[in-house]
Write a structure and sequence with these properties.
11 helices, Pterin-binding_dom, Dihydropteroate_synth-like_sf, alpha/beta, globular, eight-stranded parallel barrel, 15% strand, single chain, DHP_synth_dom, EC 2.5.1.15, TIM Barrel, magnesium, 294 residues
Length: 294
């Protein structure tokens, strides 16, 4: 248990359960599993289940026990067709949960919000990162809030109604532009994590294409976060409803780890941690001389 004053948890220190996996190009990346905590009544996967502060906190500490390296707490659904909530309502949902987690949670916490005023309040509570699904596209003040706090900023690729072009060259170019805006605003390069935004402004074909270009995305000079957990395109491919997509999630997680993705945002923490652990064991070259037979 931490002391009684909220403070940042330095991610490099706190992520003691992250797994070191060697990607195809030989670079060692510490894979961090980010557990999703939705304190909303309408999230596509688990809306309403953890809406009360008590249920939310119980689930948060369960994710910690399962091996999460980060907790990502959100109080406004970002599912297709979601109903926006006011800043006042979003904070009403977040405050009691963050107040407890800031005092007692042993791992870093990020808040999933695109509103600068919510980000500022959350940072005052002691969270370590902001996960912005709009990448400051609509609220440029977000970049200043994050820069002033010197916290981790999870920038996600998104766009309004314009369709994404073929080949996803636009995805790479818009991400490069986003990186430049963040750095120009004073966000330290080592505090910036980029996310290709799977499921946002992309159809199933484009989501798959975005996954195929992960080798290029991880070469943009920033750590990468990937969030595909239980998303619609997995259900379309596997003909599976939202509660039956674990195998699809884990297949993509394994692929992403091998391509150098550093953060995996997931609902199923325990299973994802096991995938990370298994990949680490397979690639542990120190075991090569300890064979027990075929």
């Amino acid at each position: 248990m931490l002391n009684n004053s909220p403070k940042f948890i330095e991610p490099a220190i706190a992520s003691s359960l992250a797994w070191s996996v060697i990607g195809k190009k030989g670079n060692t990346v510490r894979t961090k599993v980010m557990g999703i905590l939705n304190v909303t009544p309408d999230s596509f996967s688990d809306g309403g289940i953890y809406f009360s502060p008590t249920d939310a906190l119980n689930h948060a500490y369960r994710l910690v026990e399962e091996g999460a390296d980060w907790l990502d707490v959100g109080a406004e659904s970002t599912r297709p067709g979601h109903q926006s909530v006011t800043s006042e309502e979003e904070w009403r949902r977040l405050q009691p949960v963050l107040k407890d987690l800031a005092l007692h949670c042993p791992i870093p916490i990020s808040v999933d919000t695109y509103k600068p005023e919510i980000a500022a309040r959350a940072l005052e509570c002691g969270v370590s990162g902001i996960n912005d699904v709009w990448g400051a596209l609509h609220h440029k003040e977000m970049l200043q809030v994050v820069s002033d706090a010197n916290c981790i900023y999870f920038w996600m690729h998104n766009r309004d109604s314009r369709p994404l072009g073929n080949g996803l060259a636009e995805l790479l170019q818009e991400t490069r532009s986003g990186i430049e805006r963040c750095l120009s605003a004073g966000i330290a390069r080592e505090r910036l994590v980029i996310d290709p935004g799977i499921g946002f402004a992309k159809d199933t074909h484009q989501n798959l294409s975005a996954l195929r270009i992960l080798p290029h995305y991880t070469k943009l000079g920033q750590s990468v976060l990937l969030g595909v957990s239980r998303k619609r395109f997995i259900g379309e491919i596997l003909s599976a409803d939202v509660s039956d997509r674990l195998e699809g999630n884990l297949a993509i997680a394994a692929y992403a780890i091998m391509e150098g993705v550093e953060y995996l945002r997931v609902h199923d923490v325990k299973a994802t941690v096991r995938v990370c652990r298994m990949l680490e064991a397979v690639q542990d070259k120190e075991d090569d001389g300890q064979q027990n037979g075929p």
